[in-house]
Design brief:
This protein is mainly α. The protein is 72% helix and 0% strand. The protein has one domain (3-205): DhaL domain (Serine Threonine Protein Phosphatase 5, Tetratricopeptide repeat).
Length: 206
Amino acid sequence: MDVTTLTDWIREYARVIGENAGYLTDLDAAIGDADHGTNMERGMSAVVAALDETPAPDPAALAKKVGMTLVSSVGGASGPLYGTFFLRMATALADGASATDFAKALRAGVDGVVQRGRAEAGDKTMFDALAPALDTLDAELAAGSGLAAALVAAEAAAVAGRDATEAMVARKGRASYLGQRSVGHIDPGAASSAMLIGAAATAFGA
Ligand code: ADP
Ligand code: MG
């Protein structure tokens, strides 16, 4: 894997976020403050603008640019959380970028999200989509699947994880203020995270 494919992933994610900003904001309107789509769209548009201006020379520089841009352009919980995700990925990608390196970098990113947000499985957050996706990615790669096929399986796990948040009571973030009333709605961050893994499956499968 190289910086070109990783850049394709980020650009594909920005495209999908742009297409689904209304949907993400609707999800956030039900259990939050109706800004998740706007937040993510603002952030990913800024990322694309930064990449248009200066393409990233290598995988680590790319992830760092994405992380710093998200931290500086997105208000709300998701800016620092996604920003930390990519900044941690950047550190992990410094040693190279084989399929396993990529999986390890994603894992480092999720570990950063957990350190920052303290979310646990079942708290109804982005972690509930990312964690099963990365477990599936690791298992598929360990079983000998290629990266493209492993990412397709990881996307399915992310989507299942996203859908499972509907029945959960939110215990982190704004939605936790609603307590039991948060049940019956998909978590917006879990939805945008499933899109992140889906964009990887698209970019690496092409
Ligand atoms: P805000 O909640 O500040 O309005 P957003 O609406 O952009 O920010 O993002 C909300 C999403 O952030 C939630 O759907 C959830 O997935 C994620 N989130 C919030 N708090 C945490 C946390 N502590 N750990 C992990 N994810 C979190
Ligand atoms: Mg919000």
